Amino acid sequence: MWTSPFESFVAPARARPHLWRIILGFVLAMLTWAVVYVVMIAGTAFVAMATSDPALAGPNGLPTWFADFAIGKTPTGVVATLATFAGMLLGTILAARWLHRRSAASLFGAHMLPDFLAAGAITGGVGLVALLMLGAGDLTLVPATPIDLFLTFLPIVLVALLLQTGAEELLFRGYLQSQLAARFRSPIVWMLVPSVMFGSLHIDIGTLWGTGTLAPNDGLIFAATTLVGLITADLVRVTGSLGAAWGLHFVNNCQALLLISLDDVLSGLALYKLPFDGDDLEMLPFLILQDMVLLVIIWACIRLWLARRGRMAAA
User: Fold this and answer.
1) Is the full-model pTM beyond 0.85?
2) What digits encode the pLDDT tens for the residues 10-40?
């Protein structure tokens, strides 16, 4: 399981591998992200209440559009929500600097750009082939964002998606995976634990908090996002870099948020929407399982590309 590129990737983490530092660093990154998100929501709410016509406000005093904005069901809401991941990025860099005396560059590894571009191209290519072969089946896609509005927002939302996926890769693979690998030899710890934590990030906390139970499809969503975590962790393991993992993650999120999306959170810029939301129990479980199979195929194609170009150590 251990490769020479991964050894180089983990080396900067060996100076201060204490478990308490890792836990504190993760908490710092998550808190910084949470603070940035709360400030964004609260600031937008304050401006909305101060500038909107009170006659158009809902029972809580906020304009009716604010609820959709807050969960990313408007174009500006999507961009704003993704931009809050700057807090996660900053918090991770601060944790590495303050608690481990590590530079931000040490969290990324080498060969970033070529691996990012190759993995992104493979992810997009396999996804396109799958879409053309499988189509939408019995689903009727609902046209959503007008093309002129989509193209207007496209440059900034791509930057925001680079930020969001980069922040998650930096925290869960660049920081947690390398620091845990410096402290524990077993891949059950340094691959599985960050992947499970990454999967947990995608559970509907609002439903869990309000009802004490998971949302209908949260179990499958957790499994799918944990699989993404394991796949990207493996790509970091064999390359010693975040490049391939980030490329896969970025293009996968682009497809899910910008091309065909659920009629749910962060759907405000999708070209097409599925005719149901995240609570659907008829078609969504099948689609999630189908996406999981597709992810494994994408991972295998990236591993093959890396092997053919000598970018992958024997593993």
Assistant:
1) yes
2) 999 999 999 999 999 999 999 999 999 999 9
Using a pLDDT cut of 90, give the percent of the chain over it: 77
HEC string for the chain: CCCHHHHHHHHHHCCCCCHHHHHHHHHHHHHHHHHHHHHHHHHHHHHHHHHCCHHHECCCCCECHHHHHHCCCCHHHHHHHHHCHHHHHHHHHHHHHHHHCCCCHHHCECCHHHHHHHHHHHHHHHHHHHHHHHCCCCCCCEECCCHHHHHHHHHHHHHHHHHHHHHHHHHHHHHHHHHHHHHCCCHHHHHHHHHHHHHHCCCCHHHHHHHCCCCCCHHHHHHHHHHHHHHHHHHHHHHCECHHHHHHHHHHHHHHHHHEECCCCCCCCCCEECCCCCCCCCCHHHHHHHHHHHHHHHHHHHHHHHHHCCCCCCC
